[in-house]
Specification:
298 residues; alpha/beta; 9-stranded mixed β-sheet; two-stranded antiparallel ribbon; 47% helix
Length: 298
């Protein structure tokens, strides 16, 4: 049974008026009347007899009101216990992450933690996946978000998102106005690349396309931060391989062009990682359980 319907009935019954109950609940009178009707349909009994001249709670209505008021008291006691428990959950959750991660599930968990446990704070820093794995192995941080790695004995991971990367150039780049762009043309131009292995993990994939020696000779700029790689590409400094979701708005506004749109450079699996053996705080345990639930991890 929907507790909100019972709550609405309780207020109306105590006020002995639909209009006064609606005002107290900050709802419209039709909404309150509909709620009472739905509750009566669920119970299969009339709870209130009313017309323009009378407002009468039926015998069944009186019994339901008595039970509902007792239930409300119990619910308040439960809320008080939960509020006390929430206030006891404090601490800092440290997360190392590659830049540019797009994951609504992760965003929702952060929002839920903030709402339910205001005493918990987050410390989120950008790093490469190798740095993240190393930090987890050394128990320097509780969680990491990075490119999926081969199975590590001590590291657990669950998938946050799938990132598809494509080659892009900006409206300042000579290839922007070419009718057809070939892979040879991309090979012949300067590249904006990720320094080290960062979001996208595109350097190894680009090496497969061109050969690592060729890439190192053709890199015009680099950064470990996805936002900065995007900035460099937008400035026309070179062609870059970037996540499609990150570039979509700029492409629609005519600032970027997707080169070779039929061929993505690679699909990158972004994962949440944590140590299998680390002793976690209560706040970290709650965060992990929320992530696992949100991502259907078992």
């Amino acid at each position: 049974m929907d507790w909100n319907l019972l709550k609405t009935f309780c207020v109306v019954a105590i006020e002995k008026s639909i209009s006064k109950g609606a005002a107290r609940l900050n709802l419209s009178q039709p909404a309150v009347s509909q709620a009472i009707k739905r509750l009566e349909e669920q119970l299969g009994s009339v709870l209130i007899r009313r017309d323009s001249h009378r407002f009468e709670i039926t015998e069944v209505g009186v019994s339901v009101l008595r039970v509902a008021l007792a239930a409300r008291k119990s619910i308040r006691e439960v809320d008080a216990i939960l509020d006390e428990r929430r206030s006891d959950i404090k601490g800092v959750i440290r997360i190392l992450t590659v830049s540019g991660v797009n994951s609504p599930a992760y965003d929702n968990v952060l929002r839920d933690m903030y709402s339910e446990f205001p005493g918990v704070t987050f410390n989120i820093e950008v790093a490469t996946t190798q740095e993240i794995v190393s930090a987890l192995q050394r128990n320097v941080c509780a969680f990491g978000i990075g490119v999926s790695q081969p199975e590590e004995v001590d590291i657990k991971q669950c998938v946050l998102s799938h990132e598809h990367t494509f080659f892009y150039c900006s409206n300042y780049h000579p290839l922007f106005t070419e009718e057809v762009v070939t892979l040879d043309q991309i090979k012949a131009t300067k590249l904006v690349s990720f320094s080290g292995e960062s979001l996208g993990g595109t350097l190894p994939k680009l090496s497969e396309h061109y050969g690592s020696r060729y890439i190192h000779q053709q890199i015009s700029a680099s950064s470990a931060n996805t936002g900065e790689v995007l900035r460099l590409v937008l400035a026309g400094i070179g062609v870059g391989s970037l996540p499609e979701l990150l570039c979509r708005e700029y492409e629609e506004r005519g600032f970027l062009r997707k080169l070779l749109p039929e061929t993505s450079v690679c699909e990158v699996l972004i994962v949440m990682m944590w140590s299998a053996h680390q002793v976690r705080t209560p706040a970290e345990d709650i965060f992990l359980k929320k992530i696992q639930t949100a991502l259907n991890f078992s």
